[in-house]
Amino acid sequence: MNRAKEAKRRAEQRIKEVTEKTDLLRAEIALKKAITRINVKEL
């Protein structure tokens, strides 16, 4: 779970620092993946 939470934190940081549209899309996908992992672990 720590790995997923760290990935979520990194993705949120990348969204704040986005420089190109493709960077934003990649960061959003990474954030969604991390949130999904966290939700699955909590089941």
Automatic annotation (TrEMBL):
<dbReference type="GO" id="GO:1902600">
    <property type="term" value="P:proton transmembrane transport"/>
</dbReference>
<dbReference type="InterPro" id="IPR020547">
    <property type="entry name" value="ATP_synth_F1_esu_C"/>
</dbReference>
<keyword id="KW-1003">Cell membrane</keyword>
<dbReference type="GO" id="GO:0005886">
    <property type="term" value="C:plasma membrane"/>
</dbReference>
<comment type="function">
    <text>Produces ATP from ADP in the presence of a proton gradient across the membrane.</text>
</comment>
<keyword id="KW-0375">Hydrogen ion transport</keyword>
<keyword id="KW-0813">Transport</keyword>
<keyword id="KW-0406">Ion transport</keyword>
<feature type="domain" description="ATP synthase epsilon subunit C-terminal">
    <location>
        <begin position="2"/>
        <end position="41"/>
    </location>
</feature>
<keyword id="KW-0066">ATP synthesis</keyword>
<keyword id="KW-0139">CF(1)</keyword>
<keyword id="KW-0175">Coiled coil</keyword>
<dbReference type="InterPro" id="IPR036794">
    <property type="entry name" value="ATP_F1_dsu/esu_C_sf"/>
</dbReference>
<feature type="coiled-coil region">
    <location>
        <begin position="1"/>
        <end position="28"/>
    </location>
</feature>
<keyword id="KW-0472">Membrane</keyword>
<dbReference type="GO" id="GO:0045259">
    <property type="term" value="C:proton-transporting ATP synthase complex"/>
</dbReference>
<protein>
    <submittedName>
        <fullName>ATP synthase delta/epsilon chain alpha-helix domain-containing protein</fullName>
    </submittedName>
</protein>
<dbReference type="Pfam" id="PF00401">
    <property type="entry name" value="ATP-synt_DE"/>
</dbReference>
<dbReference type="GO" id="GO:0006754">
    <property type="term" value="P:ATP biosynthetic process"/>
</dbReference>
